[in-house]
Amino acid sequence: MTYRKKMAAGNWKMNGHWAELSEVSTLLERHPNPACDVLLCPPATLLSRMSDMTVDGAVMTGGQDCHTDENGAHTGDIAASMLADAGADYVILGHSERRADHTEEDDDVRTKAKVALNAGLKVIICCGETLAEREAANTLDIIGGQLAGSIPDNVTGENMVVAYEPVWAIGTGKIPTLDQIGEVHDFIRAQLERRFGEGVGRSTRILYGGSVKAGNATEIFAVSNVDGALVGGASLKAGDFSPIIDALEASK
Ligand code: 13P
Q1: Is 148 found in the same domain as 64?
Q2: Is the pTM of this model over 0.85?
């Protein structure tokens, strides 16, 4: 079986000031040498400082978005190369909040991914259905379309991670059944193998995101083709994120 290093990724979204960097210190103390990849994606204002704190490699850092252009007249936006310059290893792209708040389409996400990969970043490509889409039994069609449209051709198991985040599970405390998570993750794996071949398809990590907490992490991490989690709210405090890392390290 292809080895895939597990990943616990935290998305701080629009949360956190300098004071909250103490959570990172606590996390580094608790996990000086994690058996899985640990990634934190803070707001851009904290990226450089957080990257300096984590320079020893125990925790990696990432941005939450980048622009489709490499540079230029885009007031308020951030270029992929700037994230890399600030110390980021990864960038999250196509999060449902960006798709909803900034009307990002699949081809925007694909262009961003190309620019990010060119800048030397690794990308986390997000996909996920709304509740209406799930209730209409369209989940796999939606996910398939998002993957086909959002992922550029030049990805590998090294430079891309896929995150499945059902929109209705984000920040709601609701999660799909374990069978539903497994169905989508198996489907994503099959789609990746079909498009990119077995090598890339089997080595690409697929994270689950949406209301992951210490209390449900172990059962989610036991689901087939779940290689870790993309965690929002429970990544803000070391005391909440640390047991999720523990659960991932202890998983199959
Ligand atoms: P929550 O863990 O807060 O549900 O957020 C998930 C998410 O959107 C991570 O990107």
Answers
A1: no
A2: yes
